[in-house]
Amino acid sequence: MQYIDRPKKVSLVLGSGGARGITHIGVIQYLLGRGYEIDEVVGCSIGALVGAAYACNRVQELGDWMRTLTKAQVFRLMDFTNPRYGLLKGERVLTILQDVFEDVLIEDLPFKYTAVATDLEHEEEVLFTEGSIYTAIRASIAIPGVFKGVVHGDKFLVDGGVLNPLPLNHVTKKENIVIAVNLDGVPAKEEGLVAKLNPVGLLQESFYAMRRRLSTLSLAYYQPDFTITIPQDAAGVWDFHRSTELIDMGYGLAEEALRA
């Protein structure tokens, strides 16, 4: 197989999707190994977190740490709080991340980084392109009802994936190769399974169907040069203990997508 031969500067769009986003690490490792220069990252939720690690030159360290996680360690990262505001504070994760990369100002990063959150009250996207990268991550990963939302100025912010799970519209370097990592690929569902689900399962499947449609529309409208698609059922939201498998999956799917 021949690999594409063209200018290799990349704008990388990293979608949201919980533990499936650990595949982003494998994608980045593949791109760097093939000589691509990622000089713009746009991410929401887990995509904002992995993109921040790359921007801080610590994506390898993040992957190494993720590979060590067990189910018990993942559970210990859950800092439960008053369920009125969300099940988890989300502060313990950021505290642990300090061992991987330090908080920095986004404007001091060596390339363009954008994290996407959602202003829930006004139903608008909020972009973090300056200020604390930890604040950007914390707002972007605030899954409603799971992580406590973030008050930022006069806004109440939650997960960027609520409105835009694959934020291709915020790429600024149009001259780059645009590569999207879509975490909402079609799952391999058993025929007739949906009709057998309980109410919670139906609600979950409805939410996933909505996300897939949003991502599909974004891809159709903005047409990135390459799309790396991760099946929605590749991992559950909290399956971080499967990080080794997911990093390897991201690497393999990136290789498949970028072959000429």
From TrEMBL:
The active site is at S45 (nucleophile), D159 (proton acceptor). The keyword Hydrolase applies. InterPro entries: Acyl_Trfase/lysoPLipase, NTE, PNPLA_dom. A motif (GXSXG) lies at residues 43-47. The keyword Hydrolase applies. Keywords: Hydrolase, Lipid degradation, Lipid metabolism. Residues 12-172 form the PNPLA domain. A motif (DGA/G) lies at residues 159-161. It holds the Pfam family Patatin. This is Patatin-like phospholipase family protein. It comes from Sphingobacterium bambusae. The lineage of its organism: Bacteria, Pseudomonadati, Bacteroidota, Sphingobacteriia, Sphingobacteriales.
